[in-house]
Structures are given as structure tokens and as C-alpha cells.
Amino acid sequence: MEGKGQGIATRDAYGEALLELGKKRAEVVVLDADLSGSTKTGKFAKAFPERFYNLGVSEQDLIGTASGLSLTGKLPFASTFAVFETGRAWEQIRQTVCYSNLNVKLVATHSGITVGEDGASHQAIEDVALMRVLPNMTVIVPSDGNETRQVVNVISDYRGPVYVRLGRTKVLDVMPDDYEFKIGKAYIFNIGKDANIVAMGIMVSMAIEAARVLKRDGIDTGVVNMSTVKPLDTKTLLKASRACKLIVTAEEHSIIGGLGGAVSEFLSENYPVKIRRIGLMDDFGCSGPPEELLKFYGLTPENIVKTIKEVLT
Amino acid sequence: MKSDITTRDIDFLKEKARIIRIEILKMLTEAGSGHTGGSLSTADIVTALYFYKMRHKPKDPKWRERDRFILSKGHAAPVLYAALALSGYFDKSLLNTLRKLGSPLQGHPCSKMLQGVEISTGSLGQGLSIANGIAIGLKLDGLASRVYCLLGDGETQEGQVWEAAMTAAHYRLDNLCAIIDNNGLQIDGYCSDVMCIEPIVDKWEAFGWYVIDINGHDMEAIVNAFNEAETVKNKPTMIVARTVKGKGVSFFEGKVQYHGITPTREELERALKELGGDGG
Rounded to an integer, what distance in angstroms lies between the CA atom of residue B18 and that of residue A246? Predict the structure, then answer.
């Protein structure tokens, strides 16, 4: 159950996977808004310049153009930073992509506070909430490079709007080599009798570390990687909830409207159980090195351990 | 540029536009809400597209080689619905269901509900970006199909329109022809009072477009403009159509209050008389 060591940033895995997908499928087109070096779509651009469209600094036009391409049977991947993709262009995503249920893949990087030094203006902590509320939208938050590569392939075979949330900094490899990603299927590392941590993205590796510490201290804690936030894997959620006394959600996102919101909504109606949400506590991020920011905002194994111990002891 | 279109062709199109105006007024009266002025001001342009210029197959709405029409000013839905019905995309009787619960004729066009609607619109400023994406896709596929996109003049106050204006010029989308319904009015009053959009021709030229400035109710001028646009290479074309809001019904013409309200039964009768009969 331990992390398998230093991996790569999910954005890097995206860049590689997109390039491979481009080789296999001629209908794949990629669009970016002047951030192709950072989102790693630049790799695809270099290999397939005739299928890459830079829209310049114009996120609303990015979404509209991608939508138009999908209407001619192309498979567009539109990328920029998460805060601009989901925030600046939210209403374009609502009106054009989701209302018309278009086959557009929105893959955004630089989510959460691990953007680091650029500060709050560039740190999306609301994007999952913004995307989750839209009908027809699927929301996926991969936890490591392996899962990201699989997500890129799986969503290319799925028809309809998808939002994929990726990060800037390196993350530990956590998913087993034989793991197979399926939309709407959470991955159970283990189920604990005392508490279960439901995590997404970079918080999965921290949940694993927290569970290890808690087990040592006699608190049986499980970990679930809820990489598809919408549609939520309610079956797995019920299984984890029925087995224990406390559910803790962990996300590099506001505790409002994201994974914690989704889990709370479902469990309060279907299996009321004690819940604690770990994430940004209705606060903006700020500048600083990613590791320091994670500590500052309590997105650490230590804070997960502390939160669970406070409730259970 | 002159085309080989005959007087008889023009008369046919004028008669179609008259019928479309009648259908617009009837469906809006029945619906009791909707946008009268901007539907009537675009009737001649939309008629020329559906009954002269565009290659399309009403019985095969997804025909790969069709020309595309994007109604960016989605509130003019009635003019699109009338054109689609009269082209044969669906039965004309459906027009009476406009805006009613369960009707595919939503207040603003919905592509998931109605055949012939290329994309849902209604939130202003988004259509041109979508048209660009379609134009790029058609070029990638080596198709000669063209894309037409109709915008309102007030709509050009949306910033996204200018993002899209740059994109179309940057990617040299000469298979794209946009039209601005320049009726000079928006909900809150004259465009020139609410938020000046002039100099409209200079702006589009400065953004790298080929601009044709016409009387948007002169059917021959409309037809010639669409033909001229087809000859333009390496840049998109913008037709600035000078129109009159509420065109065709004297007591609606140029009146800002008819942006978002519909005729009463009595007004409908008077309007139909002016238009010379109920169109059958």
C-alpha cells in the first residue's frame, strides 16, 4: 500500500499520452491558449502542427473553436491552466459544450495550490465544483502519471464532455502497474474498520501515508482513490462508509463543492456517517514553494492523521 | 459583383422572405413571448441563405458536405425555425409550439432537440468561435463546404467576438462568411447610446476581414454579397447588413420596444394585412 516512489507530474504524462494518441488517431486535434509549453500540449504540436491550434490568450474562443471542431467529427483536446479554462470560459463550457453535449475533452493543468510561486491568481481551487455542477459533464482527477496516461486513452473512446484536472508538480506513483482506469470506478487500496480516506489527485499519496501512520497507532484506516468525481462511484462510497466510523475526504481544492462536497451530498442522503473534509478551507492560496504551501494549508498526511485522531479518540 | 441570378429568382426569394415574416409573426403571437424585431430584420438574409446560397439537404440534416449556418444571435430563433420548416426539416405545424413545454422549438435554438440546428445558441458572443472551429474542421477534411454565421450588432459588444475575429483572420478562414444584422438597436436602446460599436466596417477590416457593406433588405444585394464572399481567398468575409429592426411591419419598424415583445392578436391582423395575406 505504500507509494512506489517519485514519479512525474500529471501534466508531463498528459503530454506524452497525447502524443501517442495523436499517432494512433487522425481525428485528434489539440488546442491551447498560449500555454502549450506549460500544459505539455507542445509535444503534440511539434509532431502534428497541422492538427494543433494555438488560439492565443483567449480561453473563451478556445472552447468555442474546440466545439466547432467537434461538430465536424474531430476529437478536440483543449488545454490551458485550470483556473482560466474552467473559470474564464465557464459559460462557454456550459452553453456550448455541455448543453449541446459535445465530444470535447477539456484537459487543464496547474490545478490547486501546487502551482506554487505564481500565487492565488493561477491556483484553481474551485474548478471541480465549477465543472461538477454542469449536466452531461464527466470530471476526472488522476492521481499519478500512470493513471493520467490511461485517462487520456479512456476518454478518447468516450463520447461527451470530459474535464480532466492535472497538476504542475511531480507526484508519487501510487497506482499499481496492473491498474485499469474506468470512468466512474474508484480504486480501493484497502477498506478500514475505523476510518476511510476518500482522496483525489495528489492527496491520494498523502492518504496512503496517513493510513500507514494510523495503522501503526492502532487505527485501521483505508484509502479510496476517487479519481472520477462525476459520476461518483457511490457503490464504493457506500461500501467504505458501511465498514467504518468516519469518512475523510482529501482534495487539493476548496472543501466547498469539490470531492468533499460530492461525497457529503451523497452520504447525507443515503448513509449519514461522520464526515470530515480536508482541503482549502474557503480560502485562496498564495505564493510559495509547493511543499511549503501544502503544509501551510494542511494538505499533509500529518493533518489527515490529526483530523482522524481528533474524531476517533 | 453581379451574378447570373434572374429577376424571377429574386422575386421568388422576396416571396419566400414575405412568407417567413408571416410565419415569424404568427408563431410569436401564438407563443406570447419572444424576439420580434431582430427576427424580422434578419428575414431577408436568412431567406437568401436557405433558399439560394446554402447547399443543404433537409431530409439528410447531417449530410457531411452541407454548408453550415450558425445563428449566433440565438434570440432570433423564430427566423431560423421558419426557414427550417419552409425548407422541409420538419412540419410547419410545429411552429405553433414555439416556447411551449415539451416543444423542440426552445426559446433559443437547441441542437439536441431540433434537426437542422447546428449548435445551441442564445448566450451571445459564442457563435463565431464555433463557426471558426467548423471552418477549420471542414478544411482539414478537404471539404468545400462553407460556414455562415449571423451575429447581432449589439452582440459585437461581447469580447469573445473579437477573440474569434482574430482567430478567423489568423487561420485565413476563407470558407467562413459572417453577417452582422446591423439594425442599430439593442434591448436598452440605440447601440450608439448603449455602447457604440462604430466604426463597424473599419473595425472588421482592421481585424483582417474582407468586408462587404450592403442594404440588408435588398435581396439582390444580399445574393451578390454571398456570391462575392465565395471568391475571397485567404481571409474571412464579413457582410455588414444595414437592416431595420421589425422590417416589414410599419408599426414595428425601428422601434426598440419590439426587441423582446410579441404582437397582440390585433397587431398580428394588421401586420398580416400589410404583408399581403396570411401566407397559407
Answer: 70
Say yes or no to pLDDT of A245 above 70: yes
The domain over range A6-172 is classified in CATH as 3.40.50.970: yes
Q: Nearest C-alpha of chain B: how many angstroms from A254?
A: 29
pLDDT score for B258: 80
* Residue to substitute from B119, B121, B147, B162, interface A, most A β-carbons within 10 A: B119
Q: Which amino acid is at B7?
A: T
Could you report the predicted ipTM of this complex, rounded to two decimals?
A: 0.96
**A203-216 helix and A301-312 helix, angle to the nearest 10 degrees:** 50
Nearest-CA distance B107 → chain A (Å): 14
Residue ranges covered by each domain of chain B: 7-274
pLDDT at B280 (0 to 100) = 52
Instruction: Tell me whether residues A60 and B159 touch, CB distance under 8 A.
Output: yes
Quickly state the pLDDT bin for A305 (edges 50, 70, 90).
very high
Q: Domain extents for chain A? A: 6-172, 187-312
DSSP A248-278: EEEEEEETTTSHHHHHHHHHHHH---EEEEE
CATH of domain B7-274: 3.40.50.970
Q: Which fold has domain A187-312?
A: Rossmann fold (3.40.50)
8 Å CB contact of A92 and B160: yes
Sign of the CA dihedral with A286 first, then A290, A292, and A298 last: positive
Average pLDDT in the B87-100 region?
Answer: 98
pLDDT band at B2 (very low <50, low <70, confident <90, very high): low
User: Chains A and B: how many Cβ contacts under 8 Å?
Assistant: 106
**What is the per-residue pLDDT for B7?**
93
Exposed, middle or buried by CB within 10 Å (0-12, 13-18, 19+), for A49? Answer: exposed
